[in-house]
Amino acid sequence: MRKVGRPGAVGDVVIASVTVAALCSGVWLLRGASETHAPPQPSVPQTAADTGPARVVTSPLPPSPPDRIRIPSIHVDAPLMGLGLTRTGSLDVPPAREKNLAGWYEAGTKPGETGTAIVAGHVDNTEGPAVFYDLGAVSRGSTIEVDRRDGSTAVFTVDTVEVYQARDFPDQKVYGAAPRPELRVITCGGGYSRTTGYQGNVVVFAHLTGSR
Predict the structure, then answer these.
(1) What are the backbone dihedrals phi and psi of residue 15, each rounded to the nearest 5 degrees, phi first?
(2) Can you tell me the distance from the alpha carbon of 141 to that of 16, in angstroms, rounded to the nearest whole number?
(3) What is the pTM of this model?
(4) Per-residue pLDDT, 203
(5) Domain spanning 8-211: which superfamily?
(6) If we measure between CA atoms, which residue out of 8, 38, 34 comes closest to residue 20?
(7) Percentage with pLDDT > 90 across the chain
(8) What distance in Å separates the CA atoms of residue 20 and residue 94, rounded to the nearest whole number?
(9) pLDDT category, 85, cuts 50, 70, 90?
(10) Partners of residue 14 on adjacent β-strands
(11) Hey, where are the domains in the chain?
(12) Can you give the pLDDT at residue 194?
């Protein structure tokens, strides 16, 4: 992802405003694919007023690292690796060659416990679409499932899907602490330029509504 707004924090760890730069190069599109094949983008923020009340929050789960993420509405079923920070303080990224691999920020909140958990993944690589290519097509009310190492599955419901230009990225809104179990899923978006790549980021906001 690109340089975005002011620094934000997850728990006590600050993520610099240069966030996941390698996710947003658009290398597949740069190698000859036409702009008509750019990934889908949310057209407008999908607020509660648009689609009715969100499902209720369930009780937080005890901490447990995540192993897998599923987003059935866009056919995502991918393993998760731990991500840290680079030397510049930006969030690191999964290896670009692994097109069906996402990562979670392992120094922050674990998905299902109270706070803001962060998951990020590539939109494409040199071979074509990657794990979160269709993230912009997720709609409010969709389900996100995260399998955890303790054998449980945290079930999240999407509150909104938003797209931000790099200059307007709301670090505190995306990365800031939350009083309930929340999840952010992030990839590239915000339009595409053949000279500079993707212009911003797609962010899915979700909260915990169940477990099994």
Answers:
(1) -100, 125
(2) 30
(3) 0.84
(4) 94
(5) Sortase (2.40.260.10)
(6) 8
(7) 53
(8) 10
(9) confident
(10) 9
(11) 8-211
(12) 73
